[in-house]
Amino acid sequence: MELWHLYQNNYLIVLSFIIIGVLLPLVALFFGKLLRPYQPNENKYTTYESGIDPFQDSRVQFTVRYYMFALLFVIFDVETVFLYPWAVAYEKLGIFALIEMLIFVFMLVIGLIYAWKKKVLKWI
Amino acid sequence: MIEGLLTSEATWLHFFIYFALTVLLLFIVLGFVTYAILAERKVMGFMQLRHGPNQVGGRWGLLQTVADVLKLLIKEDAIPRAADKPLFILAPLIAFTPAFMVLAIIPFTDRFQFADIGVGLLYYIAVSGITTVGVVTAGWASNNKYALMGAMRAAAQMISYEIPLVMSVIGVILLTGSMNLNDIVLAQENGWYILWQPIAFIVFFIAAVAELNRVPFDLAEAESELVAGYFVEYTGFRWAFFMLAEYVYMFAMSALITVVFLGGWLPLPYLGFIPGAVWFALKFMVVIFLLIWFRVTFPRIRADQLMEFGWKVLLPVAIANIFLTALLKEWINLF
């Protein structure tokens, strides 16, 4: 029971951190609103583009490289999801799990080498 | 008193006490940020043979940052017409909140700590990843070409360096057998992890600098090409929250490096009479100084070098380190 309370209380602290993290910007911006001047002028609200008048919408198509990196990120981040519990329980799992993990990571490394050879990792 | 609090049933009273203590930490962190910015400017000044701030608040410019914050507070707030207003307002919040959330799990000394949760390290890494969303939101909502380019770069950089960051600490977890930061510190009593895991430390430190978006990895806000990167359109206090998030992360990351690799509050041998808080502060300041030193010393690296270094050097090294550690552990167990 005591352990359960300890668990509960620790996550309560985490919750209080979340609430403060959200509250601070809200409170500060609220006080800022009371203090700061408000003198609207149409020119102030144009998009900044180093002095020239902005043209087109800036949300254009982007190079596919960013997407490739995002995909690679997902693959390796999921890998870490498997690696973390393995690392914690390593003592109990022993050498068998180590070899299993080696095979698992080896397959992902093949993927990395493939991406490397396909020049995905090259930034142009 | 706190011990009793933690082991009794959670009530509203508990929550209010924790809330008050969290506010206390918030003020400590804000004080740190104020003087970290000053220290950074001063150290940079001395390293470049300048004086740095020396007008406001005496010879050491002690009130310079306070004056800057007050100035930001009374700046007019301009949201561009073309911007996506709700997202534009939300973005600083998304960027700042996780920066403060991660502080919950850092054990400063064996007595002064907040949440002592089993998955501490994982919590830190998972929560700190959310900031990327805030950065991309800011760039997208601004509807500005510089902002969008900065945001895309920042996102690509942050996700690329998160992988080596996450993988390098697996070596530490292997040796400790726990993700709880208290266990990690206590496991370092016979040698800090910087000695047992030097490769992990180097990979972690480089990836940490990249995650913090600091020089030499500050491509997201490269002034000479992107003006200011993803927060070009932000003014006044909304802008201040991006800066604040950056420095709170600096606090959190330095504290994490201290805890995971430098033994937290543990003293050096024969120097145990100095209290743990002093040790933590000393190590913490060394890491902060190292970060500032990096900023003054290194030029910004190119975007292509950045990505290739992350994926082709740091990631394979981090993976190799995991298995090296596992083999080392097996080898130690044999004898």
Helices and strands of chain A: which structural class?
mainly alpha
The rough form of chain B would be described as globular
Nearest-angstrom radius of gyration of chain A?
25 Å
Low-confidence stretches of chain A are none
Order of helices and strands of chain A: HHH
**Shape estimate of chain A:** flat
* CATH fold description of chain A: Methane Monooxygenase Hydroxylase, Chain G, domain 1
Tell me the name of the CATH class of chain A. Answer: Mainly Alpha
Structural class of chain B: mainly alpha
The largest pleated sheet of chain B is described as: none
Greatest interface by residues involved: A-B, 71 and 86 residues
The separation of the N and C termini of chain B measures 45 Å
**Approximately how much helix is present in the residues of chain B?**
55-70%
User: What is the H/E string of chain B?
Assistant: HHHHHHHHHHHHHH
What is the terminal separation of chain A in angstroms?
58 Å
**CATH architecture identity of chain A:** Up-down Bundle
Total E-strand runs of chain B: 0
Subunit structure (chain A): NDH-1 is composed of 14 different subunits. Subunits NuoA, H, J, K, L, M, N constitute the membrane sector of the complex.
GO molecular function (chain A): NADH dehydrogenase (quinone) (non-electrogenic) activity; NADH dehydrogenase (ubiquinone) activity; quinone binding
Subcellular location (chain A): Cell membrane; Membrane
Membrane topology (chain A): Multi-pass membrane protein
Keywords:
heterodimer; A: 124 residues; mainly alpha; Methane Monooxygenase Hydroxylase, Chain G, domain 1; 69% helix; B: 335 residues; 0% strand; globular
